[in-house]
Design brief:
Blueprint lengths: L2 H20 L12 E8 L5 E9 L3 E5 L3 E8 L2 E12 L1 E7 L9 E6 L13 E6 L4
Antiparallel strand pairs: 1-6, 1-8, 2-5, 2-7, 3-6, 4-5
């Protein structure tokens, strides 16, 4: 075998070894870290009075609204969060979770305007979630 042939065989063996060693390993996920998430319901209509959000995820501990009340209702692995504001404004609340590295996917179920009338459509609404502080 020539030098080039030996070099190719060794290079091939090195690639195969590297692939075999990395098999089954992906990016490692950080350890679960309990903490606070800040949640905002962004409305195309401005100030709102209340909202109901839902998630199919475990790990929601509690919710609190700075200018109102927030409640968490659980049924199996589904949680509903109800936020009632004292005065109409942007709906923002704190959500305590078991792992801030895996924030729940929140879906808006209902929104009420400042006069407590349900919005006819949820078109244009979105939910923004961010950690309350850096880990």
């Amino acid at each position: 075998m020539t030098r080039t042939g030996v070099a190719l065989v060794l290079a091939y063996a090195a690639v195969i070894s590297a692939l075999a060693c990395s098999e089954g390993r992906g990016p490692t996920r950080p350890e679960p870290m309990p903490g606070e998430l800040l949640v905002a319901v962004v409305s195309p209509n401005g100030a709102e009075g209340a909202a109901v959000l839902e998630t199919v995820a475990e790990g929601i501990v509690e919710a609190a609204a700075e200018d109102g009340d927030a409640y968490v209702f659980r049924a199996g692995n589904t949680s509903r969060i109800v936020v009632l504001l004292n005065d109409p404004s942007e709906i923002r609340f704190t959500l305590w979770v078991e792992d801030i590295h895996a924030p729940p996917a929140l879906r808006i179920v209902e929104v009420a305007d400042g006069e407590n009338r349900l919005r006819a459509t949820l078109s244009g609404y979105r939910v923004e979630v961010e950690p309350a502080s850096g880990p």
